[in-house]
Amino acid sequence: MFFDPLAKHRSFSVAPMMDWTDRHCRFFHRILTRHALLYTEMITTGAVLNGDQERLLAFDPVENPVALQLGGSEMTDLAAAARIGVSYGYNEINLNCGCPSDRVQSGAFGACLMREPKLVADCIKSMQDAVEVPVTVKCRLGVDDDDEEARLFEFIDTVAGSGCQVFIVHARKAWLKGLSPKENRDIPPLNYSLVQKLKQERPDLTIILNGGISDLDTAAAAMADGVDGVMLGRAPYQKPWLLAEVDPRFFGKQAQVETQEQVIEALLPYVELRLRSGDRLQAIARHILGLFQGRRGARAFRRHISENATKRCAGSEVISAAAAFVQPHSERSAA
To answer: Which of 250, 277, 311 corresponds to the end of one domain?
Structure first.
C-alpha cells in the first residue's frame, strides 16, 4: 500500500513555473499559506549534476513542504539528481512530462515524454529506487494530434505500473508543432471532464487537476467534481493575496495572515537576511508586485518597487516605502 506523507497537502498546490517559483517566491507564498504544497521551477538534471547546486537547490526550511521538479529523460541522471534533491531537503521529486518549450523538445523531455510512457515508467522506477520521498509526474493530456483519452490512459496506466501513484494533469494537450509555450497555455481547449473521468476510472490513483483555474471558487468546484486536488499557477502568482484564503477554504485551518501589511512585516526580515547573503533586492521584490492588487495605492506600490529595487544598494526600505503608498483597507478602490 502506497503511503503518501504529503497527502494532507495535495488539496491545493502552486504550480512549478519557469523563472517564477524560485526560493524567494516560495518563501513569500509560504507567508500566505502554511499548508499548500509548493513546487520549484523545473530544473534540468544537467543543471543539478553539473551546475551550482547551492544556488539552484538551497531553500529556507520554512518553505516546506516543497517539491523539486526535474526535467530529463536519462534514468541514471534522474536518479542521481533526485538523490541530490532529497539531500537538500525536498519532500517530493516530480518529473516534468508536460512542458512544451523548444528547450525541452530539443532535449527530448518535458511534453515529448507523453509519447514515451515506458521510458517514463523506467525513469520513475529508477528515481523511486534512489529516494524514499514520493516520486510524482506532471503531464498533459497528450501531444499534437493525439487522441486525448487514448494517450492519457495509456500513459497513466503504463507509468502507474512502475509504482507512481500521484499524477498532476494539465487538462489540455501540448501542441509542439507551431505553437509557442505561451500559446500552449491557452490552446487547445481545456478538458476537465477527461481528468475527472480518469479519477473515476482509476480511483486508487491520486489525480491533481491543473490548467486554467483562475480563482478559488473554480478550484473548489473542481474538487467537488471528484479530483484529489487542484494546482494553480499564474493566478496565485499574479494575484498572490488569494493564497491567504487557501488554508481556511481547502484545509480547514486558520488563515496565516489577515492583512497584506502583515505579509510585508513577515517578509522584511527574510529580505534583510538574503541581502546580507548577496542576493539583490529585485530578485526578491519582483514576486510581490501583485500583493496589493485592488487596494488604493497599489499602482504606486508597484511603481516604487520597479523604479528602485534594481538600484545597486537597494535595501528592504524600498519595500517599506512602497507599502506606505497603499491606503488603509477601509479605503479600498480599483488601482
So the answer is: 250
- 75 and 218 inside one domain: yes
Handedness of CA 175, 178, 182, 188 (dihedral sign): negative
Q: What's the CATH number where 274 sits?
A: 1.20.120
Q: Are residues 209 and 306 in the same domain?
A: no
Before 65, cis peptide (omega within 30)? yes
Q: How confident is the model at residue 305 (pLDDT cuts 50, 70, 90)?
A: very high
In this prediction, residue 105 carries a pLDDT of 56
The reply to whether 269 and 234 lie within a common domain is no
Q: Is the pLDDT of residue 5 over 90?
A: yes
238/332 Cα distance (integer angstroms): 19
Question: Can you give the residue range of the structural domain that contains 302?
Answer: 260-331
Coil, strand or helix at 96:
strand
As given in the structure block, the three cell numbers for residue 239 are 494575484
For the beta carbon of residue 311, count every other beta carbon within 10 angstroms: 12
Split at pLDDT 50, 70, 90, the class of 110 is confident
For 216-271, give the DSSP string: HHHHHHHHHTT-SEEEE-HHHHHSGGGGGGHHHHHS----S-SSHHHHHHHHHHHH
Known active-site residue 99: yes
Asked whether the beta carbons of 16 and 25 are under 8 A apart, the reply is no
Q: In degrees rounded to 5, what are phi and psi of residue 179?
A: -115, 140
Using CB atoms within 10 A of its CB, is residue 335 exposed (0-12), middle (13-18) or buried (19+)?
middle
Asked if pLDDT for residue 333 goes beyond 60, the answer is no
User: Which of 195, 230, 250 is where one domain is finished?
Assistant: 250
78 and 96 fall within a common domain: yes
Predicted pLDDT at 185: 59
| Cα–Cα distance, 65 to 30 (Å, whole number) | 9
**Average model confidence (pLDDT) for the chain?**
93
Q: Could you say which of 99, 112, 123, 139 is catalytic?
A: 99
pTM: 0.94
216 and 323 in a single domain? The answer is no
